[in-house]
Input
Amino acid sequence: MLRLDRIGKTYADGTAALDDVTLEVRAGEIVAIVGGSGCGKTTLLRLLAGLDRASRGTVSLDGDPVREPHPGIGIVFQEPRLLPWYDVAGNVGFGIAHLPPALRREKVLHALDLVGLADQAKRWPRELSGGQQQRVSIARAFVTDPRVLLLDEPFSALDALTRSSLHGHLYRLWQESRPTVLLVTHEVSEAVALADRVVVMRPKPGRIDDEVTLELARPRRAASPGFEAAQRRIMTALDRSLAPRENEAERGRAEPATAWW
Amino acid sequence: MSDAALAASGPRGAAAPERDGARRGLGAPPLWLLGFVLPVAVALLWEAAVRLGVAQGRLVPPPSRVGATLGALWTSGDLQVHAAATLWRVAVGFGLGAAAGLALGALSGASRLSRALLDPTLQALRSIPSIAWVPLFILWLGIFEASKVALIAVGVFFPVYLGVAGAILSVDRKLVEVGRAFRLSALATLRRILVPAILPETVTALRSGLGLGFMFVVAAEFMGASEGLGYLLVDGQQMGKPDAILAAILCFAVLGKACDALLVAATRPLLRCQDVARDRL
Output
């Protein structure tokens, strides 16, 4: 179980990025974190990854406090961040260099197979498309068998078609070892396609505004029943999360609910 | 074949397919051969001008005479002696200068404290034209090898220092963070992320250092040497032998290019991924 207990983060310049965030995620659950820009989603993920430290409160994984990068927690960044001096296989195996070569090769090939890049193992990152690079990056995180996988808007730079195929790859990887997944996204449809639970955040300072539990059958497609209704529920929640923050004049303006995200 | 095509191909019109072949033949040789056209043409023209008596060729000797001088220097063994002396000086000077440049550059790039300590002084020293050190080096180190090697080392040091320090400062923090996320030790971060990240720029810095090394070996040999290609230059000037000067210049060109190629070849295995980038962009 991943626990966030009254987490707060204030940056050195006084910016309050997060305040009083409490969240429990059970093992194997897929949680999407959505919210407008500047509501601390990425900050939250960096705290969970141990890349930054919380100003207040604690993060713990199965009772083990997380203050720096934790062996049980993997992260996929917004950009692929592949190392250009390693080939695809070298990048995927980056985090398991300590394993014996034979086992390492086997795990790398298996992960590449699951993301559909088994035939690209010997190529250089620069030769791959953006979507392929992000698949390598996801495989790199999965290959260490993390108990928790953090994804920071990993598909935001990709076109819709590539994105939906990557959702498939991600889901297949998840099915294998069923890690806990925290996915930060600004795409409501992405949250609905993947998550068991959607956490809606609100800005200034970032905190949790609402939660929506999704009980749709998997695999989910945009055409499957309930998909659109779920999307609407989250959008309404998002709308509410921003509304109290806006002053009267702005609220008076008839903005379409979808314009800001 | 149409009449127009026949007419266009002129007197050799019967061979239209041949012309196509010739065009393909022209396209086949690599483009770099084109670079030879200009110097070879100039050399041939000058040779012809001297042979035909249009020019005297006393101050600007024709290629054949330069070639003959080179040949004579080679058979007498002088050329080997001079080239070896010059190469030795460049090698030692480059070795010392590059080693110091790498070490101080790494120090200044890696730690803010040492950067604040070292960089201002080194930048100030850099703005001194290196030749200005010559009198001091001669006073300190004598007129023999040590002062020459020191001058070359100073010339090599600065581009290497600047290149390495700059490379370290411009390492992508996001990639370093990948190392952190995978909990790499400091040593592993150095080996698997920092060193590969700065390698390309370091090699470039070493190459420009080597180029400067060759520049300064000439200056060093001008200031009094009894052997070396630079001595050959001075000697040619004093004895009025422009063919010997040109022969020495040619040797510099060949040696400089060869050393650079050697450096590139030696570091190529370290830069495999760069090749891909260059081919693709």
Q: What stands out?
A: Residues 63-280 of chain B form a domain with the MetI-like fold fold (CATH 1.10.3720.10). The radius of gyration of chain B is 26 Å. Confidence is low (pLDDT under 50) at residues 1-22, 276-281 of chain B. Chain B has 13 helices and no strands.
